Amino acid sequence: MCCELKRRFLLLYATQKGQAKAIAEEIWQQAGAHGLEADMHCISEMDKYNLETEKDPVVIVISTTGTGDPPDTARKFVKKIQDKTLPSDHFTHLQYGLLGLGDSEYMFFCNGGRTVDRRLQELGAQHFYDTGLADDCVGLELVVDPWIDGLWLALKEALQLQKEKEGMNSAVDAVSSSLSPAPHAVHELKLSSEVQNLKLEDEGIRGSDILSQKLDDINLVAPARGTEPSLVHSVPPVSQSALNIPALPPEYIEVEFQDTQGQNPHLSSLISEGTTFEVPVTKAVQLTREDAIKTALLLQLDIADTAFEYQPGDAFCVICPNNVSEVEELLHILGLSDKGDDFICVKVKQGTKKKGASRPQHIPERSTLKFILTWCLEIRAIPKKAFLRALVECTSDAGEKRRLQELCSRQGASDYTHFIRDSNVCLLDLLHAFPSCKPSLSLLIEHLPKLQARSYSVSSSNLYHPGRLCFVFNVVEFPASPSRPVSRKGVCTGWLAELVAPLLYPSKSSLDTKGESSSSEKIFIFPRPNNAFHLPADPSVPFIMVGPGTGISPFIGFLQHRQKLREQHTDWKFGETWLFFGCRHQDRDYLFKQLQYFLENGTLTHLKVCFSRDSSTAEVAPPKYVQDILRLCAKEVARVLLKERGYFYVCGDKKHMADDVNDAIVDILSMEMEADKLEAMKFLAMLREAKRYLEDVWS
Fold this sequence. Notes:
Elements: E1 7-14, H1 19-31, E2 36-42, E3 58-62, H2 75-81, E4 95-102, H3 111-122, E5 126-127, E6 132-135, H4 141-165, H5 172-176, E7 211-213, E8 243-245, E9 253-258, E10 277-286, E11 296-302, E12 315-319, H6 324-333, E13 343-348, E14 366-368, H7 369-376, H8 385-392, H9 398-407, H10 413-421, H11 427-433, H12 441-447, E15 454-457, E16 468-474, E17 477-478, E18 488-489, H13 491-499, E19 505-506, E20 522-528, E21 543-546, H14 553-568, E22 577-583, H15 595-600, E23 606-611, H16 626-632, H17 634-643, E24 647-653, H18 654-673, H19 677-689, E25 693-698
Parallel strand pairs: 1-2, 1-3, 3-4, 4-5, 4-6, 10-19, 21-22, 21-24, 22-23, 24-25
Antiparallel strand pairs: 7-8, 9-13, 10-11, 10-20, 11-16, 12-15, 12-20, 13-14, 17-18
């Protein structure tokens, strides 16, 4: 008997933070068990595949970044397929299935995947499998898992149809023999990111790549009667279920400790996005009072001796380290406290079963152990299920082992979401909760993602402050919870706050350069220009700015820039400017009371403020939120947008502000246009398309 021939399909992924790559690797791992072979590549490796001549089915996994952009690794690919000279039949030979990843907290949900999907369709490509759109807001696995489950039948049917078209019926038997009886038709799987449309089966095995555990094969540790489920305890039905758990990811990294000494890599070598700049922090101001709920800081950087350029509205990234005490704690748990300063060599494990295995790009080939844990790995990352599956093998206690299996299983999906994902549990939390779990250093390098640089909006103008760059941020606080017994500060904001503590003083002189000091503290930054969130090119066009809390940050730069333009070009006509600002308390967190200065010199035409937590003795309660003030100014807002073709900018929290502002604008447009809400929504969509309604938001 001859061996069964594995049928090939092309598997492409485009990732920003590693999610899409991890999912593509899972597909690659499962393919073999279905008699298929995945030829996997990053979509940026265009020298390793050619869609123009590709005959086999193509599977694409693609994430979304920024405000609906494809990930950086897909930019060249997207630019190539968006070439307007390509004919409409350019990809008529191509059959593909696409899985998009996104977050419905943001306006342009899964826009990276949608952009590629739409363009491939325009160029004649055909779906062999329906597009899946996975939502990180509710849990990617709710769509990813069933999408992968249905992929295999769709692939086999696509390959079978392809063989029949080629007239090679004799070779079809090997593939069709593994198919369960099914109608001979193109497979369809309707997927939605909406949880209520998903019906996941808890029973039954989904494929030979999934390990099904029978109750008599494991030692069940029954929780105490009447207890609630938690990170470490389960209750029925999960605690009594046979589990469908993922296949064990193959090991592929090897770590060697070396006796030699040397230098760690330069931080700039860790960044692939562009040129990095090392700049001193020259000023730090606390903008909030000590009793404010959040602590907001303004930092000023000296960029005079660099080639760093920016426009008001741009963002930039700060390269930050992990918390020193957390790194030390992790070294202690790993039993490597005395080896933190030792140099290690990271290389691919010989004989690994992982296809195309290579040392992760964010891991230097040679550096100290502490350097990798401090600057390279996101040790605060929420562990993926594949990581939990690998941790099972490092756990000796039967009860702990079972609970980790539950958390990475289909049956434990709800527990994973509640106790790990929504609770922001990280590796350290897991190692404390499951003390018999002793992972190797190589396992951490395999599964922990790259430590991402953090992005911040510029809060200054290079015209107003030449050679200076300012930015504003809240020091992020993560309170303790049942799954995470210790409170933590944000990785970057906590580090910056500690770094500038010697410079820090509570002051409101933040719009000028008084109080600068010569600081020896320096940070690494690199630009991340915003293609749209800029002042109107025509200064006579009016615009409205909505920025509560630290959302006001880019608008300080807007106003500084506008003031200088007014001073330099007295003959120009300038449109009116509106700013809607809100905070909790007028005397605690009104970040920039100098806004009155812009109002007095005419740079700012209208300033509207509100304070959500201040009590009032007025007969009519004042507005609490920016969307409330917008409604009070409905006629003026509508005039700027409808009659004067003005711009509308929103910056700040997406979930608790930007969506409400969006709804308020729809109501205003509906009322002033004397149209129904659907028409108002269409008009707002047109404003977005014309880049006249612009958002810089975060969740």
